[in-house]
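Recall from the previous chapter that SMILES is a line notation for molecules. Here it describes magnesium ion.
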Amino acid sequence: MMQAASSTAALPVLEVRDLSKRFGGLLALSDVNLNIHQGEVVALIGPNGAGKTTLFNCITSIYTPSEGQVVLRRPQGEECILNTHKPHEVTRLGMARTFQNIRLFQGMTVLENVMIARHCRTRAGVFGALLRPAWVRREERAIEEKSYTLLQYMGLESLYAEEARNLSYGQQRRLEIARALATEPFLLLLDEPAAGMNPQETLELKEMVLDIRKAFNLSVLLIEHDMSMVMSLSDRIYVMEYGCNIASGTPDEVRHNKQVIKAYLGEDDA
Amino acid sequence: MRGVVRSFLVSLWFMALTFPIVVIKVSSLDGSIGWRWENAVGIGIGVFVVSFIWRALLVRRGAMTPREADLEWLFTWLEVERNQRIAKAVGLFIGCNVPVLFLVSVGGWKGFLTSLHALEVGTVAALVLAHFGMILGGGALRGKQRGAVAVQWVRQTAASPLGRKGAVVALMAFVLPLPFFMDMYQVNIISSALIWIMLGLGLNIVVGQAGLLVLGYVAFYAVGAYTYAIGNLHFGNEYIGFWTFLPIGGLLAMLAGVLLSFPVLRLRGDYLAIVTLGFGEIVRVVLEGGSLSLNPILSLLPTSVVQALPASFQNTLDLGGPAGIGGIPYPGFFGMKLSMDDSIRLVYFVALGLTIITIIAVSRLRDSRLGRSWAALREDEIACEAMGINKVTAKLSAFALGACWAGFGGVLFAAKTSFINPSSFTFMESALILSVVVLGGLDSIIGVALGACVLILLPEYLRSLNEYRMLIFGASMVLMMVFRPQGLLPAKAIKRTMPVVTEPPMNEKAGAA
Ligand SMILES: Nc1ncnc2c1ncn2[C@@H]1O[C@H](COP(=O)(O)OP(=O)(O)OP(=O)(O)O)[C@@H](O)[C@H]1O
Ligand SMILES: [Mg+2]
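With both inputs in hand, we obtain:
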């Protein structure tokens, strides 16, 4: 909220324009619009099956949108239309995400999970790997150190040599965030980061998101079902239902929006 | 009195353990077998005396009950738990004797007899192996339980860098002089095993590291072999030979890998397997067809280049057909004229050198940015892309590098056999290489090496069971899949020691807001 005043003047870092996505006959997204400004924490809420994850997948180019545009503005100033990009290019441009159904590299260690994410910020190739010149060794060391630091930041450093699959649910979610941060994003997308966490963990997660935003200077877009978390965390909220935007605004505005109440509580309560 | 009986039993046990080594003596001159019973008696008496004193000492010191003292001695330094004793005794016996019999059966008695050296080396090797057999036999039966000093020792050695260096040095000291003591038949077998280790490690890049199931791997092997065979036919002379075609074969196989990977980039799992299987078969069928028209390629080249090519090369490329191509020379050695035996030894050393290079290369790849991107691809393709890894590059590089090693292996194979034909490059071979990787342990370098040794050497030595070979092979694969799907020696995560990093994680970007 505090950023809202200063950032309305600047162009948003992410702009979703009239985005639609069709799966055969199913219109999963129809004319969705969404903006995120530098430094904002924006939440995306809506009932199950509303199309929130689908929107994430379109933004990160895992799906190709049927219509509409996704525009990313990098801090360096360039503007990219993401529709034609590959997912890995999107990550390289500075957008990182986590997954609703955790997608860690389960068989690898916690540290390696984060190290993999350094891929797009490092450059050793086949010959680097085979010949291991000094700069590659330095790079490898730097990858390890940076990854370990991120683990420390997420409170996972003692588990660094553990296989990812052995982590608890909450730890896995945090590891996913650490991994996303390792790609050095300026925009972080979190898909239901608190799902499966207990109230205490959720509270810590909330603090963590705010802290990350400040420490890494990024903007956050998150999908979340936990209303108390969403309301206390976000600067702005977008509400979706059946693939459409039905409302947006500050938490207070959204809380009192008739359509939102209807969507969440059913017709009778309206 | 009780002690005497026990010591007597112990000495009998030891005589049984050492029987193949100390009693059987094979004369290298006429191949007759001598039984040196007096040695067994000597061992028996020696063990009896030592055992008796040992027991007495232990019991006197009150460290053990008499019964425990027996067993302590029986199993040397392996600590034993009651319910495991019998199992362990059997394990020890097998561990002690199998390697000996195994070595003795190399190529039958005859092959073993051809030189006195072979027997001596064999005995030393048998002793070493028996030692390890005991350690492993004890360790395997013991499972994870406390004790087993020997197993711990092996673990510690394997864990410490110095120990590992020592093990490598010891291994090298064993394998380097090997071809000078063994007969050429066996040297050849070991060379093939080395080639198979290379093939296994190459395929492991694609299947084990990148998780792409490729069933036509032998096609790349064929590309390498035919590169040398055909290249030698047309261009071979005293300057252009093995050492020229080795890199060319690798490169051409790599090219084939890249060509294959384009159509299959979008495929996964079963589909990828089927397409690559088809590719392997196409290559074999082309080879059997016997010739390949070069006109499409030559028409792309300027006429002056075409005319400069040897006449035999100008229209069709003769692939030899089912009859194959022969007369492929051994590797050269600085233009020296080598005897047949020395050439075979040279092949062995080249195979050894290439295998070592392969092992180093593969382990470096595994612990690199590229290797991690393969692992990510294997674990989760979508997450892999979300981490900024280009899926296409990762797949392409895995295919190219994997194929490259098959190419090297192929060139070496052609040089070793001096004659190749399509029947060496059938689907059976692809399946066998895959089995090497799966049996040994996907993504595990030592595992793959072990898998190659088991799958290539065992059938050689089990020739007497010829009709049952495939049966045993199939049955053991099924058993493996049921009881140890992760392979003999499954891959372990790379060990990393993390420093205590105290600097705050919010890097350069912090405070920019
Ligand atoms: N790959 C796909 N193919 C076909 N239909 C899909 C696909 N992905 C999502 N859908 C459909 O799109 C709709 C929106 O799904 P989505 O996963 O985006 O919902 P969501 O808002 O994330 O729900 P939840 O809160 O349960 O995660 C659903 O009806 C779903 O069945
Ligand atoms: Mg969802």
